């Protein structure tokens, strides 16, 4: 990542220390490249991993608002402790034993299906965009191909059904947005 950023005229200007102990590198355009503030360059910076892109000149009020928005967004997706079991309606998701039970009956899931179900289950009622779900589960940038995610969601729904007549729903589609786990 660092090599790509430097190749496209960015240079590391500092390290941002996050409360959880992690570090984020801060990059800025090399002097003389600041005129490249067109949409293509903004898009490039964001696609190379930037969380935000601020164009000079900018106001301190705008910068403070952008920082607060990024912090708020990061807090929204903080996962619950990974060993915390989740119960939604008659569904139990246990990450320690890597098991899912519905009405006490175990259901088999692939590791990816389990991770997706656990993520949704630890955030009941929270809407996730397809892009965000994809990036959290597959840990790579989302380029608009919804087929992989849609297929996994459909498999989850099929496996959660006890019979063809079963009308219980756990994962709700939010048209134009993404998905969410139904609340209890």
Query: What order do the SSEs take from the amino end to the carboxyl end, as H and E?
Result: HEEHHEEEEHEHHEE
- Mean pLDDT value: 79
Tell me which CATH architecture of the largest domain applies here: Orthogonal Bundle
CATH homolog superfamily of the largest domain: Winged helix-like DNA-binding domain superfamily/Winged helix DNA-binding domain
> Reading side by side through the largest sheet, how are the strands ordered?
3-4-5-6
The largest pleated sheet is described as:
4 strands, antiparallel
Q: How many alpha or pi helices?
A: 6
Low-confidence blocks of residues: none
Helix content: 25-40%
Number of strands: 9
Q: Estimate what percentage of residues fall within beta strands.
A: 15-25%
Q: Output the radius of gyration.
A: 20 Å
CATH C-level label of the largest domain: Mainly Alpha
How many structural domains?
2
For the termini, the CA-CA separation is 41 Å
CATH T-level fold name of the largest domain: Arc Repressor Mutant, subunit A
Question: Which structural class do you get from the secondary structure elements?
Answer: alpha+beta
Envelope shape: elongated
DNA-binding region: 83-183
InterPro entries: CheY-like_superfamily, OmpR/PhoB-type_DNA-bd, Sig_transdc_resp-reg_C-effctor, WalR-like, WH-like_DNA-bd_sf
Keywords: DNA-binding, Phosphoprotein, Two-component regulatory system
Domain OmpR/PhoB-type: 83-183
């Amino acid at each position: 990542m660092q090599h790509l950023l430097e190749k496209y005229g960015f240079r590391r200007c500092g390290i941002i220390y996050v409360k959880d102990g992690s570090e984020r590198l801060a990059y800025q355009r090399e002097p003389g490249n600041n005129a490249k503030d067109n949409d293509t360059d903004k898009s490039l910076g964001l696609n190379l991993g930037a969380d935000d892109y601020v164009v000079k000149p900018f106001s301190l009020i705008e910068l403070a608002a952008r920082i607060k928005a990024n912090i708020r967004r990061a807090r929204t997706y903080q996962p619950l402790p990974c060993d915390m079991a989740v119960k939604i309606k008659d569904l139990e998701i246990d990450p320690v034993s890597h098991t899912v039970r519905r009405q006490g009956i175990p259901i088999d899931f692939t590791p990816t299906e389990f991770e997706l179900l656990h993520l949704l289950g630890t955030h009941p009622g929270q809407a996730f965009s397809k892009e965000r779900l994809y990036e959290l589960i597959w840990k790579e940038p989302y380029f608009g191909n919804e087929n992989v995610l849609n297929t996994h969601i459909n498999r989850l729904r099929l496996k959660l059904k006890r019979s063809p007549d079963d009308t219980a729903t756990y994962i709700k589609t939010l048209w134009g947005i993404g998905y969410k786990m139904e609340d209890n």
